[in-house]
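hey can u check if this looks right to u? its 224 residues, i copy pasted from the old doc so theres a chance i mangled smth
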Amino acid sequence: MARQRIVTFNNSATKPEGAAAFDMLRTKILQQMRAQGWKRLAITSPGKDCGKSTVALNLAFSLSKQAEVHTIVGEMDMRRPTLAKALGLSGGGSFAAVLEGKANFADVAMRARPNLAFAVNYGQVRNPSELLQSSTIEPALDEIEARYQPDLTIFDMPPMLQTDDTLAFMDVVDCVLLVAAAESTSLAEIDVCERDLAAQTNVIGVLLNKCRYMDNETGQMGYD
């Protein structure tokens, strides 16, 4: 986990550098989502290599430290899946098969903690955009929520500006967090993504990742 920059994985009293910032992000997101009655959070970025999957994993493990909060993480980046490698998983069924109605969630998901489960893909999925717009998506998600009753489901989405995959899925989520990379994501890209996302769902915030400047007093990453 340390090599994958998952700083919230460790439950020790001494927090690794950066863990406090993710704990702060966790609290802000939980407060906003609970106030609105939201359950489904998508995480995306304008382009690749912004660290959205790393943010999703750190947020998930930070949430798992609150025993009463039950979280499911679903991998929706089907052209470039990375969660299995980051978590050290191999083999098994794919989350895409669950969304297609061809597999049971229980046979695919991996429980990392008593209150945290992951559903990943082990390889590229054919025609992901068509799958994300298919009629099987909502029944599959509704069934998972009805059976397991997660407080929060996090969807690790593809980058916004490379394909239409993310926009195809936005009408079934409650809100979205946009992850931008310092010194590589432009303000114009953020503006375009925010505008397109806001037309379909609630933009819960923009997180500035890979920032070499940290607030000296709070140690927080940029979050709006």
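The chain has one domain: 37-223.
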